[in-house]
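INSTRUCTION: Work out how this chain folds

Fields: amino acid sequence; protein backbone structure tokens

Chain under study, with its fold:
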Amino acid sequence: MIEFSLLAALLAGLLGGVHCVGMCGGIVAAFSFRADGTHPPFRMHLAYNLGRVSSYVLFGALAGALGATFKLAGVMPVQLLLYVLAQVVMILLGLYLAGFNQWVRVFERAGGAVWRVVRPLFQKLLPVKSLPQAVLAGMAWGWLPCGLVYSVLVSALAAGSATSGAALMLAFGLGTLPNLLGMGLFARQIQPFMQRLWVRRAAGLMVAGFGVWGLLMLAYSTFANA
């Protein structure tokens, strides 16, 4: 099922752009203009996002390693529970993106304490003047308490190994690139489109569909092996 999980994570990142506009819009705006009002070159935006995705991969590796402890201990019911939990979280995430609930904000509030520690370090890196500084700023950006990121991390926890968890979060991070790079380069043109109700509903329901399909795959596998 790892191929399905990677695809789901990739598309969750891509379709989650409706959430990224609100969550990361201010940070992207800070990155999109220099002190003199000019736009930074494209390679700077790539560096920001390289740092951000690197943080996601680290989170995924740590979550996957934690999940692997259950695998090594042979705790099969817990592994199964983690998989089911990951699919349920994906469904709830999709409903959140579609505007039908606000449950993801629980994750965001929980991560707020960490961000309050990281934010002063992040602010010291502004304004960004070099590529290494941009990568560091992007890594700090990755610690933003984003419910979308934390939701996908549940799937990384269920991945069963540090490598699989890192790969899953890498897939998610790559999925977010078109939206966040696009926001950095064409923020004024993209934001109105991403905030349209039908766009939010379509993206959210597709993400929820991944969770439903994951549960159906589990049910079919269980039935077939019975």
